[in-house]
Amino acid sequence: MTTEVLGLPLEIGASSAWLIWILPFIAALIMPGIGKISKHATGYVAVGFALMSAISAASLIPMALEAHEIHDQISWIDSIGLKAGVLADPLSIIMANVVGWISFLIMIYSTGYMKGDKSITRFWFWMLFFIGSMQLIVLSDNLLQVFFGWEGVGLASYALISFWYRDKKKDHVGVEGRTVLGMLDYYAPTHAGMKAFIMTKVGDVMMIAGMLLIFLFAGTFGFRELMHDTTWATTMSAQGLLVPAFVLLFGGAIGKSAQFPLNEWLLEAMTGPTAVSALIHAATMVKAGVFLVMRLAPLVFALSAAGILADQFFEIILIVGAVTALLLGLQGMVNSEIKKVLAYSTGSQIGYMMMVLGIAGLSQQFVNGYTAGFFHLISHAMFKASLFMAAGSLLHVVGSRFMTDMGGLRKNMKKTYAFMWAAGLGLMGAPFITTGFWSKDSIFGAIYTSGHPWALPIFTIAVLTAVITAFYTTRMLGLVFFGSKSKHVKKMEAEGHHIHEAPLSMWVPYGILAVLTIVIGLVGLSFEGGLHEIFTNYLEESFGIYSVHNEIENSILPGFLDGINPVALTASLSAFGIGTGLGYVFYIGRWVDPVQFVNSNILFSTFHKVILNRFYLNAIIYWCFVVSPLWLSRGVFRYFEQTAIDYGMNNGLQKAVGWSAKVVQGTQTGVTQSYLFVFGAGLLFVVLILLI
Amino acid sequence: MLELSSTPLVIIAILGTVGVLLPIISIARKEKGSNSFYAVIAFSALIVSIGYVAYQFISDNILPSALFSKDVLVDDAFGGFFAIAMLIVAIFTTVGSFNYMRKKNYPAVYYSLILLSTIGMVLVAYSTDLVMLFVAWELMSIPTYVLVGFIKKNPSSNEAALKYFLFGALSSAIIVYGISLSYGLTGSTNIGEVIHGYATLDASLLPLALLSVGMFIAGFGFKMGLVPFHQWLPDTYEGSPPTITTLLAAGTKKAGFAATIRVIVLGMVVLNLDWTLALGIIAVMTMTIGNIAAIMQKNLARMLAYSSIAHAGYILIGLAISPYSTLGLQGSLYQIMNHSVMKGAAFIAVTGIVTTLAVTNIDKLKGLGRRMPITSLGLVISLFALAGVPPLAGFWSKIVLFGGALDAGSTIWWAPWLAIAGVLNSALSLAYYGWLTRKMYFEGETEKRVSEPKSVIAIMIFSMIFLVGFGIYPDPIIKFVEFAAPTLSLDIMP
């Protein structure tokens, strides 16, 4: 099946793989032109191109099911043998579909959410640019190309976080005037964009260092080429550079996926329009780090199987993931801004994925953890995008980012209420009916059965985080929809604003995702089984990682739960129960006043304060990397720049040149006799040089 | 014997006939005005000439840099290269004059003199005999004395002409003295034979031979505007009609270099190599003093005059290092070709500004970017090309020049210092180019656009295309330069 595309003979599948990421870029390029013609049309074009890109991705699904792989390359930089290419294997095809379809839904949502914005063309440009870059990451067949997409999504993220660059008060995040260790906990969009860009850049620098280190030994950036011939790994391992190189690469993932200790940018990233938060900072870009790990992990695991050990790589992933999951989950419990709660939750859930990918590499049964991580990525992308979009509707209607300004909205916004419950249940992990339950359960199972000495402590952290997750989700729903209406809402109603449901173009997208959370949840186990099978084949064929067939033996559960680890099941059920129950007590039933409860005990109140202050991590980062360098640079400016450079060099140089120009001009008298004299002297001078 | 179809003879025939006929026609028609009629004739003659040179190159009728010849002229690539550079300048001058000479007297004589001077310039580049070279030199110089003073009633034009003439006469005398010394020592005026004679010269006579070299350096250095033979130059450039300044700065200056390469550089390889150090010292002095003096100038023409002194210094770097690196002469030739266009365009822009706005004071050029957008853009691009800002053409020639100096460093210790001096001077020159740009684009607010002379616009567009185009894709010119530049070593001795 070959066809001519732009004069290049391509397989049909290959051409649609290219189109997935090229189409959004084309749309982004033509967007300014369309914006000049009609602002109204930009939305249709953007959604249309997003749809075409998603359809291209969908056309590849049969390949993924058949475990077929497309690897198409064109020459890029010939002189060093670099090739650009697409690699459509089951991993990237499924990921491309997740990205493509969620992008499409969020683009539809944006047509409602961003309606009437003066800079709508800029918005569409960056959204499409983002989708193109993200799909470039997903479909690249080599690290360098991934890095281009990586920087592209970073740039789009920066531009969209700072989208409302006029820094109006309503677009800030944080509480005005609140300080932590002397640092303001209140951020303007432009500041937030810069913060995100710089913090992720720390990871990016590590990533490019790791990439180049590998390139130095392997002479290639290609994923398949790296797998094909592993002598480079042996050499690097012998010099002790293999693990550092992979950990550096993981540094990029830490930055992009907002993992500890580069997690702080994600909270301020909430200054962007909510559609952006949903797409970039919940469903897709922050998953790029997870995706990168998923690209690399089988390679590293296969190397271990070949005797080149790199266990520390997986251990670091595991620890980073576990710490992030717990740390950010805790902070999600106390924040009062709805988008920030969701952002904390996002970081925490990504921590889960990292955790299980780490454990996968440390266990015998690699495919279990691998599938669990990817399954959680998919289900999280759905329910978190849905929750974010719903939160956007609330912001839209109420005009405040604080949950304390909402309250009692369940009667006014019935659809949003229902969909948020459905998606929220996914996040909480409501048993048997939501994707979140099954994916979380498979994570627990993978950790519990890994056989690694750290399995139990990690398992405890995972379950604890699940309790916390269920709690803060219930808290969020309770604060927004239950209880009586807040002063803010009452004031709005008194002023004649009617609290109403969001428009059709907005609730349909998050409705679809919320319903999908439940629908896939109902068949969650077989969905997981399907994924498991695909990845088992994929890992076998592409990496030679064979799974051990022993799952059924240790299954003691009956019927539809066949194949599930009983300990994991018990843990996820009780985590859901405890977390939701506590949340119900405080926020839905409102039997206990949470404020009084926290203040009742010095231990609770101290703990609450520490969490609310983000474990002081953000403030410490600011003191070390923002305030101190500023002091240093001011010092250098005052005591070096202004004295040595300005007075010494700049003024001195200028004076010297000015003075010598005067001297030279002094010789230019205009008197012909003196000219003739100089001419004669010059002749003498030349002859003297020659003769001496 | 030269064939009748050889390039220099054909150029003499075309330009000479037209040049002589123009005044006769004007007498026959009994008129003083009608500028554009004569301009078109002169322009056509120049176009035909440059076309013929180009045709000779394309059809491979030209020797690749034959350095010596029994004849007085040789039809080689070196001469052809200079002929193209000089004819471009002559065309610039003629086209610029379309506007400048409007409603001025004696246009026929004016164009005739330009054509005759052009013949002189071209022949200097083709000469292989010292007497031929001197005759060509005078043919080039004498019409320009008249042209500089062409605005009879303008005192500064008169002063310029007088100073120029005095120095021209002095330098001619010195050149003749040099020639007579070398004839006395070797019994010939053919450059090849002079060099042969010098190579077998008795040691006791060597100082006299070196004295003749000194005479040549001083005599040619006057035209090139080398320090300390430069002092006439700013006064003359400022006072003469700006079109003629173009001819002097971009054209006759190059003839000085052609003569220097023919006589000194090629010829004196056989003498001891002290003359290279002399040229190196002069090069550094020339560019430094030129740039420093340019910084404080208030008059645009005068600033560009000093800038052209500085550029003579850059070009001289290549000559000074020519025995040590093949890149030396290539860099010089490259810079010469670029300089013809850059400096030619800059002075034609001055012509446009003078004829339209009647100002040359830089302080009065505020907001020129709004008043004369195309002229300003052309001027700024020429200035940045002169400074060697990438990706303009001037960047590449400086790269070759300074790279050549670094390359020569492996043989001669002082060569890298020439490159360092060149780079520092280029940076220094940006001070006044940038200052002028700021005046033109970032100062003034209320200026309205005025109509720009079409002839000036044409030249601006041509030079912008040349400078940007060959900046982005320098390959053809580099090939041309490699073909035209003579390779220098002791083996080339006749």
Which whole number gives the mean pLDDT of chain A? 88
State the separation between the terminal residues of chain B, measured CA to CA: 18 Å
Strand content of chain B: under 5%
Main β-sheet description of chain A: 2 strands, antiparallel
How would you characterize the largest beta sheet of chain B?
none
Order of SSEs of chain B: HHHHHHHHHHHHHHHHHHH
Radius of gyration of chain B, CA atoms, in whole angstroms: 21 Å
Shape of chain B: globular
How many strands in all of chain A? 6
Rg of chain A is 29 Å
Number of strands of chain B: 0
Strand order within the widest sheet of chain A? Answer: 1-2
How far apart are the first and last residues' alpha carbons of chain A, in Å? 83 Å
Helix content of chain A: over 70%
| Overall 3D shape of chain A | globular
> Helical region count of chain B?
19
Give the overall average pLDDT of chain B: 89
Instruction: Please state roughly what percent of the residues of chain A sit in beta strands, choosing from under 5%, 5-15%, 15-25%, 25-35%, 35-45% or over 45%.
Output: 5-15%
Q: What does this entry look like structurally?
A:
- The complex is a heterodimer of chains A (692) and B (494).
- Chain A is mainly alpha-helical and 692 residues long.
- Chain A has 3 domains: 1-161; 162-548 and 560-612, no CATH class; 618-691, no CATH class.
- Chain A contains 27 helices and 6 strands.
- In chain A, the strands form 3 sheets. A two-stranded antiparallel sheet of chain A has the order 1-2.
- The longest helix of chain A has 51 residues, at 617-667.
- The relative contact order of chain A is 0.08.
- Chain B starts with 6 loop residues before the first helix and ends in a 10-residue tail after the last helix.
- In chain B, 75% of the residues lie in helices and 0% in strands.
- Chain B is an all-alpha fold and 494 residues long.
- In chain B, helix 4 runs parallel beside helix 10 (242-267).
- The longest helix of chain B has 32 residues, at 155-186.
- Chain B has helices at residues 7-29, 35-58, 77-100, 107-126, 130-148, 155-186, 191-199, 206-224, 232-239, 242-267, 274-295, 300-320, 326-357, 368-371, 373-387, 393-408, 415-442, 454-472, 475-484.
- Chain B has a domain at 274-487.
- The A-B interface holds A 657-658, 660-662, 664-665, 667-668, 670, 672, 674-676, 678-679, 681-683, 685-687, 689-692 and B 162-163, 166-167, 170, 174, 207, 210-211, 213-215, 217-218, 221-222, 227-229, 231-232, 234-235, 274-275, 277-278, 281-282, 289, 292-293, 295-296, 428, 431.
